[in-house]
From TrEMBL:
<keyword id="KW-0460">Magnesium</keyword>
<keyword id="KW-0808">Transferase</keyword>
<feature type="transmembrane region" description="Helical">
    <location>
        <begin position="56"/>
        <end position="78"/>
    </location>
</feature>
<keyword id="KW-0479">Metal-binding</keyword>
<feature type="transmembrane region" description="Helical">
    <location>
        <begin position="259"/>
        <end position="283"/>
    </location>
</feature>
<dbReference type="GO" id="GO:0009103">
    <property type="term" value="P:lipopolysaccharide biosynthetic process"/>
</dbReference>
<feature type="transmembrane region" description="Helical">
    <location>
        <begin position="152"/>
        <end position="171"/>
    </location>
</feature>
<feature type="binding site">
    <location>
        <position position="175"/>
    </location>
    <ligand>
        <name>Mg(2+)</name>
    </ligand>
</feature>
<feature type="transmembrane region" description="Helical">
    <location>
        <begin position="338"/>
        <end position="361"/>
    </location>
</feature>
<feature type="transmembrane region" description="Helical">
    <location>
        <begin position="90"/>
        <end position="110"/>
    </location>
</feature>
<dbReference type="GO" id="GO:0016780">
    <property type="term" value="F:phosphotransferase activity, for other substituted phosphate groups"/>
</dbReference>
<keyword id="KW-0812">Transmembrane</keyword>
<dbReference type="GO" id="GO:0044038">
    <property type="term" value="P:cell wall macromolecule biosynthetic process"/>
</dbReference>
<feature type="transmembrane region" description="Helical">
    <location>
        <begin position="232"/>
        <end position="253"/>
    </location>
</feature>
<feature type="transmembrane region" description="Helical">
    <location>
        <begin position="208"/>
        <end position="225"/>
    </location>
</feature>
<feature type="transmembrane region" description="Helical">
    <location>
        <begin position="304"/>
        <end position="332"/>
    </location>
</feature>
<keyword id="KW-0472">Membrane</keyword>
Length: 390
């Protein structure tokens, strides 16, 4: 029988991915029991969808599977640094990501048990982000203004603030969409898979470690996913949602090192669902006269449920939207400048129409649809003229 070390790397890597999924698959039902015993449970309330107490530290299975494989297994097979692709061994490359992610996962784990305050949760996230800043090259050092604009180089202090802000924004955006069975985990799989394809095929500065790491995380989530999809047996909890958001944020930062408009826009488009939901929520709350961070039940998944969709159907719709975003991101990487410009423009129009049709901003806030009615409906134009005269 052939020794695994003598197999082609592709075969070894496939085996490693399958082992990653199996570890998460075994650990998840164990975490169902452990979560109940330690009190990591989501109890029903006005803000939650669940109608019975649910174990909520499922993210531990994902974190452990990812950490074991990346720290102890992959370094034995990926090999030493190749100056043309990476500047460190795989272990040296990955340990800061695991440490930073571990700090954030631990913060979420404690919150799943004892309900941390917002400042304590934010502190844990900032601490994890600082690990990334000081021990990796995943920095937001510059910004290429899209569509032919200049390249803006950031001074160190601004690069630090921009990096921390990016990590916090993505981390909390993923956490906010974790409102239905399988929603955050499924959207994360779609987003990370797209990121992995972009990293492997389209980055001008190749980094073989990036797609390898991304797909390990994808398979760790995949092992957990059967227990999380509707009807869920366990939730990600803040342990998993914050960890996944954090990892998506820091891994996407490496794609931004390309310093092109496409490199800047690609992760934003891939993460279109959580980013759009978060930004729209902040705008909606401000328009309603409340705090931008005040929780409500007007998120995308809430609106879909209010329209009569079941949890299962609402999640599948959002998967579809996330897949469209991912497809746009992939097409953007092979488009010309004008093609990319038109793609982004019409995607934004389609997104605005979707937001207004679903009523995420509020049922009476539909400026684009009102404009279409104004152009194509004579009776509506007359009504508007009468209102303006008054």
């Amino acid at each position: 029988m052939q020794n695994i070390t003598e197999m082609p790397f592709t075969v070894k890597y496939i085996i490693i991915l399958l082992v990653t999924a199996i570890i998460a698959l075994i650990l998840t039902p164990i975490m169902v029991v452990v979560s109940r015993k330690i009190g990591a449970v989501d109890n029903p309330n006005a803000r939650r969808i669940n109608t019975k107490p649910m174990p909520s530290a499922g993210g531990v299975a994902i974190f452990v599977a990812f950490s074991v494989i990346t720290l102890f297994v992959l370094p034995r097979f990926v090999g030493l640094a190749n100056s043309k692709l990476v500047d460190a061994t795989y272990f040296r490359y990955i340990w800061p990501f695991v440490l930073g992610g571990g700090i954030v996962a631990l913060t979420g784990f404690i919150d799943d048990i004892v309900e941390l305050g917002a400042k304590a949760k934010l502190f844990g996230q900032i601490l994890g982000a600082c690990v990334i800043w000081f021990f990796t090259h995943s920095h937001l050092d510059n910004f290429k203004v899209p569509f032919g604009g200049p390249l803006l180089e950031f001074p160190t202090w601004l690069s630090f603030l921009a990096t921390i802000f990016w990590i916090l924004a993505i981390t909390n955006a993923v956490n906010l969409i974790d409102g239905l069975d399988g929603l955050a985990s499924g959207v994360s799989i779609i987003s990370l898979t797209t990121m992995g394809l972009v990293a492997y095929f389209f980055l001008k500065t190749p980094n073989v470690y990036l797609p390898i790491t991304i797909f390990v995380l994808v398979f760790a989530i995949a092992g957990f996913f059967p227990f999380n999809f509707n009807p869920a047996l366990i939730y990600l909890g803040d342990t998993g949602a914050l960890f996944l958001g954090f990892m998506i944020a820091v891994l996407s930062l490496q794609g931004l090192k390309n310093a092109t408009a496409v490199a800047v826009l690609t992760p934003m488009i891939i993460l279109g669902v959580p980013l759009t939901d978060t930004v729209v929520a902040m705008i909606r709350r401000k328009l309603n006269g409340g705090s931008m961070v005040q929780a409500d039940k007007m998120h995308l998944h809430h609106r879909l449920l209010n329209l009569g969709l079941t949890q299962h159907a609402a999640v599948l719709v959002i998967y579809g939207i996330a897949s469209i975003f991912s497809f746009v991101a992939l097409i953007l990487n092979v488009s010309s400048r004008w093609g990319g410009t038109f793609l982004i423009f019409f995607s934004l129009i389609g997104l605005e129409v979707l937001i207004e049709l679903i009523g995420v901003l509020g049922e009476d806030r539909t400026p684009l649809l009102n404009l279409v009615k104004l152009v194509g409906n004579a009776e509506y134009r007359q009504e508007v003229k009468k209102k303006n005269k008054k």
